Structures are given as structure tokens and as C-alpha cells.
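Re: the 306-residue chain
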Amino acid sequence: MGAKYQIAAVHAAPIYMDKEATTEKIIYLIEKAAQDSIDFLAFSEAFLPGYPYFVHIFAPVQLFQAVAAYGNESVTADGPEINRIRTACENHQVAISLGFSERISGGTALFNSQIFIDSRGSVLGVHRKLQPTLGERIVWAQGGGKSLRAFSSSDGYVIGGLLCSENSMNGARQALLEDGEQIHVGAWPALSAIVAHAETVDLQTEALTKGHAVGGQVFTIAVSDFVDDRCLDWITENLGHSDQLIAGGGWSAIVHPNATYLAGPHTGPTETFVQCEIDLSHISICKVLTDAVGHYKRPEVLRISR
């Protein structure tokens, strides 16, 4: 028998552009997860302090003040906000992955990051997005290969993750698999709330989620926030009205290594835990057919170097 865990994707909106209030909400959601007997909780891309949707709908020359404000609401990986979240994980015995806008200590450079914290409150590691996408490059720097890894958790599994379109980077996904990844967190913003992406992006997210689950023989979480009125109001007050971003959006689900849905998909502006039980013994069964890091690897032909 394999180890079994209750896992969940947090389909929710942050308290947009308010790091303190969003930290409080994260702690509340961790407490609620414990009440629901959830072992592992996944948050969306840049949940703290919220995803900078404005970079995709306004010209760069209009964004100086907004980007500066975003930097002020970003947090350091060892700062008080993350430390409070770590304490909540320890107190409630819930492990998490959290997308956050990381500001380097003593500086202003920002990274689009994903922190992994176990149920003891220990930081397993921080992944920095390798390649910010389109307008994100106005806000975030490129991450380095050192942070591209999966982490062995004291809770008994190997966890890894990628942010948004990183999930289309075949080399990055293979690198995590070669670290023994068993649970993968694909963290996303609510791209379907951006009018230009509305017709296709959820289909793309679904395809990438199922592709990694089947191709890597791993349980795969896709987790997104949604756009709420607070987010729209902040953008309107600071940059002006745009009809290119609407309320709602998002796509959250959990997929088995055989491509079936274990939970979700859930879309739209309703806050919920997309939750299920997983059994890690199913991974070895799926690897009988194809094993991305074993009998189906062909290392003499295809290699990853880091």
C-alpha cells in the first residue's frame, strides 16, 4: 500500500495589493484546511500580494508607479509575512506551496517565486520562475537553475512545481521528474479573465496539466486564483479603466497520473478547495507502461544537464 494524502488547490482571490491582509487570508485558509483534514494545500501564482494583471493590459510606459507599488507589496522569503505563514503551517500541521512575489533582502529586484513549506513549518525550498512571460518581464527578473528542483518533504512525498507557462518547458518538467517528483503543482493566474486569452487558455492549462500527469506519472495540481472586484477597482483607481480584464476566470483541478480528474475542474469567482485523496502507490502502477525516469528514459540519447 502507498501513502495516502488529502490534497487541495485553493481556488480563491487574494486581498489584492495588500500583503498584510493577504497573509491573514492565507493563515485563515491554512486553518480551514486543517479543519477539513487537508494535508497539503496549493496556492496560485503570485497569490501574495496578487498577480499583476495590469502588465498585460496597459503599455509599459504607463506602469512605472504601479510596478513600484507592486514592489512595495512584495515580500522577502525570510520576512515576517512568510514567517507567520510558516508558523501557521506548523501549528495546524498543513504543508503548502505558495506563489508569491519575492523581493530580495535589502534590494528592489523581484522574482516570481513559489515557496514550499512542510507541515512542521520548515521551508523545503523556493523556486524562482525561470522565464517571466510577456509583460511579466516588466516586474520580475529571470530565475536561475539552482531553484529548479523537487523537494523531499518530511511528510513523506517528493513535491515540485512550476509557474504558469513554465509548465510548457519540457526540460524544466523533466528536471523535476529526475528529482523523483511525485506531486506537481502547476500554479497559474486567472488568465481566462484577460479577454484576449479567454477562449483558449483554460484548454491550454488542461492540456499541460494532463500532459505532465501522464508523461511524468505524477499527481498534478493546477491551481489558479480569480479576478474579483477589489482587483478591478485597484487597477481602475491606479491606471484607469480597461475592458481587457473582467471578473472571474481561473481553472483549478487535480489530475491522476492516468489523466483522470480526481477533483475539479473548477472555474469562476467562487472560492473553494478543489480537494481529493491521492494514493502514491498508483504511481508505480502507471510506471509499468511508461516511466519518464526509468525504462522509458533513454539517457544515452536524451540528457538533462544542470
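Residues 26 and 100 are 11 Å apart (CA to CA).
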